[in-house]
Amino acid sequence: MEWVYIEDLKGHIDKDIEIRGWLYNKRSSGKIRFLLVRDGTGLLQGTIYSPDKDHPLFQTFDTLTHESSLILRGKVREDKRAPGGLEMGITEIEVLQVAEDFPITPKEHGTSFLMDHRHLWLRSSKQHAVLEIRTELIKAIRDFFDGRGFRNLDTPILTPSACEGTTTLFETEYFDQKAYLSQSGQLYNEATAMAFGKVYCFGPTFRAEKSKTRKHLIEFWMVEPEVAFATLADIKKLGEELIVSIISRVLETKKEALDALERDTTLLQGIKAPFPQITYEDAIRLLNEKGNSISFGDDFGSPEEAAISEHFDSPVCVTHFPAVIKAFYMQPAEGRPDLVLGLDVLASEGYGEIIGGGQRIHDLVLLEEKIKEHGLPREAYEWYIDLRKYGSVPHSGFGMGVERMLSWLCGIKHIRETIPFPRLLYRIYP
Ligand code: 4AD
Ligand code: MG
Predict the structure, then answer these.
(1) What's the pLDDT tens digit per position in 201-234?
(2) What residues does the ion ligand 2 have nearby, CB within 5 Å?
(3) Structural domains in the chain?
(4) How many CB atoms lie within 10 A of CB 38?
(5) pLDDT, tens digit, 9 for 90 and up, residues 175-197
(6) Ligand 1 atom showing the smallest separation from residue 207 Cα
(7) Buried b (16+ CB within 10 A) or exposed e, 55-74
(8) 167 pLDDT more than 90
(9) CB under 6 Å to ligand 1: residues?
């Protein structure tokens, strides 16, 4: 008998087939027994009918517990009443294991209990729906860049120097040297962009951030495009198009998962490019008007980002930040050397920053000054400085955090549910 995944059942109606999965639920009603089975791709209801109350399949049915692993054999038929519109008339049950009492039950569990059982929690319908959307999001990102001729060139995870400041670096041994886990592939992207024109890297990044918020992971995935000859305006447009393309793809293909999350997608459906653009100074004024006492030179925290983002129905682009709060590589604004051409895209509905990037310094002397000003060891950046000696051009790029984007798409409050095994401040188990 052919082994078929539940999501592929439509092509096997009225055929005898085999489903391999885990028991999700069971119930009985008179002469019928119902088994609800999940196989990772969907849920299928199987039925056993017999007037004989001692039917051998009924006896097997009685032994099965939640999460027991089994193989069901039988014929699949259409049935409007069944979840998914299909049902299997079971002729055989092969039990692989009768599961022990499953620790996660329909009753409410505390967060720390669920996090301790993350390896099992993944099977719950909501967690499953989020991660289903995650896989689609990753495909949508790759299709977007691959479809535009970007070259996917991944950057190293073990690095000799910092990209995003030295305070959040994970240090490790590299034989007789020190190495750091990558905070961003950007600096290497700048080198590959000069070799390939337009590139992206896509991988895990690490920040030893001592902030315990709903938006920070210690290990997260970031996609980072970098484009030679592109300005701030060019990269802003690229970011907007990426976001619009991801949203439309997920709305189109993951409706069932979004419904399982009870996500109200009204605002997402209305999102169009270009997004409103404000400068950092506009944002400060807006915040002050709303009663926030932030002043020029302060970085936005979560409350500020949320307040700005709630002011708009669409994601919003913030540009022209004070140089003092941004990284060493940012291009100063024309006529305002105290501002840099950074770009942050804040998601709507209070979700805050999902994209960070901007235009990079391309002038050799200026870059050398900035490296010195930021107290960075020049030797470690010698190769990066080289890029400004051999055909230097203006260039721009950004990073988009997969988990931040996914939280917003799914309408999830805490980022820990957007990655199979989150690394959080003080949590590395399981
Ligand atoms: O704004 P960030 O720090 O920018 C950079 O790393 C640039 N070097 C990227 C570039 O220009 N190539 O981070 C970019 C994005 C943020 O907007 C956010 O979506 C995500 O990465 N991010 C985090 N996501 C989860 N947990 C954290 N601790 C994150 N820190 C940043
Ligand atoms: Mg940022």
Answers:
(1) 999 999 999 888 899 999 999 999 999 999 999 9
(2) 356
(3) 2-97 (2.40.50.140), 118-418 (3.30.930.10)
(4) 19
(5) 999 999 999 999 999 999 999 99
(6) 28
(7) eebeebbeebebbbbbbbbb
(8) no
(9) 163-164, 184, 186, 207, 209, 216-217, 220, 222, 224, 353-357, 397-401, 403-404
